[in-house]
Amino acid sequence: MKNLSDEALLRQLGYPESHGIVGKLENIISKTDGYEDIKRHLLALHDNLKQHNAFVAISSSEDFFKIKNLENSKDATDYIHKWAHKYNVNLLKVAGKETYYITGKALASTS
Q1: 102 φ, ψ to 5°?
Q2: Long-range Cβ contact pairs of 66-74 (< 8 A, separation 24 or more)
Q3: What is residue 111's predicted lDDT score, i.e. its pLDDT?
Q4: Cβ distance 28 to 63 under 8 Å?
Q5: Which residue blocks in 1-111 are alpha helix, DSSP H?
Q6: How does pLDDT run across 21-34, given as a tens digit for each residue?
Q7: Burial class (CB in 10 A: 0-12, 13-18, 19+), 74
Q8: Is 108 helix (H, G, I), strand (E, B) or coil?
Q9: Is the distance from CB of 60 to CB of 23 less than 8 angstroms?
Q10: Cβ within 8 Å of residue 6, ≥6 positions away
Q11: Distances (CA, A) of 57 to 67, 69, 106, 108
Q12: Are residues 44 and 80 in contact, defined by beta-carbon separation less than 8 angstroms?
């Protein structure tokens, strides 16, 4: 998925290429540190979560991609955390929900 265009990513996630969605994606890109690196791994995350009734989507309330775990599946939650750790991605958990915002790449530790 090295050369995945932003439009192709939207299509693969099930979004039409409307002006509103493209504008929302532009806001997400500007706010998500390391977006290009993260983008390469979003579809694999999305595909692997489907079996647990979870998925990657565009948040309607925040300028981030979100991960929704509809059935509160422990397997999905474990996979989400392993994915974030593997690709050095920061997640922000939404209080009271099994939903996470993808906020960007984690800063490399200098220890």
Answers
A1: -90, 105
A2: 66/94, 66/99, 66/100, 66/101, 66/102, 67/91, 67/99, 67/100, 67/102, 68/98, 68/99, 69/98, 69/99, 69/100, 70/98, 72/98
A3: 45
A4: yes
A5: 6-12, 19-31, 35-49, 74-86
A6: 999 999 999 999 99
A7: exposed
A8: coil
A9: no
A10: 22, 25, 29, 39
A11: 6, 11, 20, 26
A12: no
Q: Which two tokens stand for residue 87?
A: 């690709």
- The closest of 103, 86, 110, 83 to 33, measured between CA atoms, is 103
Phi and psi of 73, rounded to 5°?
-70, 125
The answer to whether residues 17 and 26 touch, using CB atoms and an 8 Å cutoff, is: no
Tell me the whole-structure pTM to 2 decimals. 0.89
Please say whether the beta carbons of 55 and 71 come within 8 A: no
Task: Report pLDDT for 106.
Answer: 87
Contact 76, 69 (CB under 8 A): yes
Tokens of 70: 């509809």
CA distance 69 to 49: 8
